[in-house]
Amino acid sequence: MRKEAEERRNEILDAADELFSQKGFDGTSTNDILKKVGIARGTLYYHFKSKEDVMNALIDRYSVRLISVAQEVAADKSIPVVERMIRVVLSMNVSGGSNQEMMDHIHKPQNALMHQKIQKVIINGVTPILTGIIQEGIETGLFNTPYPYECMEMLVTYANIVLDDDLVEMTNEERASRIQALIFNGERLLGAERGSLMSVMQMFGSEKSK
C-alpha cells in the first residue's frame, strides 16, 4: 500500500510538472491534473492539500535531484579541481524547460516564500559540496584559506542573490562587470593565483558572448 501511494504521488507530480510546463502554473487547474492522471479529487487531496502544495513538492523533488547530481560531480576525482567547481555550479542551473516555468512562477511577488525556499536549497546545498572541492585545492596548494566554507558561502550567496535577474536589475555590461568582480575577489578569498579562476566565466556562458 505504501508503495502504491508513493507511485500515485509521483504520477500526480509528473502530470503537474508536464502541465505547468505546457500551460503555466496559473493556467493549470486542479481539474487539469485530475484528468491527466485519471483520478478523483479526493485522491489528489489525499496526497496534496492544494495546487501550491503540488508545486512545493515539485521543488523538493527537483532539489533532491539537483543536489545529488552536484554531489556526483564533486566526487569525481578524475576531474581537475577548478573544472569540478564549474561543473558543480553548472549542475545547479534551474532554468530551461518546465523548470523555467517553475522559476518564472516562483519569482512572482506573491511567491516570495517559494523563491526563498529555492535560494535556501542552493545556498545550504551547494556550499558544503563546493567546500569539499576547495579543501582538495588547499591540500594541493591551489588554494590557501583558513575559511573554505565561509568563502564558498559568501561567493554562492552573492551569485545566488545579486546575479538573480529578479532581485537586482542590471544591464548585460553591469552583469559582466559583477561576474568579473566576483571571480577577482573569489581568487583573493581563496588565496588562489591571480587569473587561475578566470575559467569560471564558462559557467555564465561568457565565452559564447565573446
Radius of gyration, in Å, reads: 20 Å
Indicate the CATH topology of the largest domain.
Tetracycline Repressor, domain 2
Binned, the helix content reads: over 70%
Low-confidence stretches: 94-98, 206-210
Q: What composes the largest sheet?
A: none
End-to-end gap:
56 Å
CATH architecture of the largest domain: Orthogonal Bundle
Beta-strand proportion:
under 5%
Overall, the morphology is: elongated
* Secondary structure tally: strands: 0
Round the mean pLDDT to the nearest integer and report it: 83
CATH homologous superfamily name of the largest domain?
A: Tetracycline Repressor, domain 2
Order of helices and strands: HHHHHHHHHH
Structural classification: mainly alpha
How many helices does DSSP assign?
A: 10
CATH C-level label of the largest domain: Mainly Alpha
- Domain module tally: 2
Which helices and strands occur, and which strands form pairs?
Blueprint: H1 2-23, H2 30-37, H3 41-47, H4 51-74, H5 81-91, H6 97-106, H7 112-139, H8 148-161, H9 172-190, H10 206-209
Helix pairs in contact: 1-2, 1-4, 1-6, 4-5, 4-7, 5-7, 7-8, 8-9
Description:
This protein has helices at residues 2-23, 30-37, 41-47, 51-74, 81-91, 97-106, 112-139, 148-161, 172-190, 206-209. The chain folds into 2 domains: 1-48, Homeodomain-like (Arc Repressor Mutant, subunit A, Orthogonal Bundle), CATH 1.10.10; 49-209, Tetracycline Repressor, domain 2. The chain starts with a helix and ends with a helix. It is 70% helix and 0% strand. The chain has 10 helices and no strands. With 210 residues, the protein is an all-alpha fold.
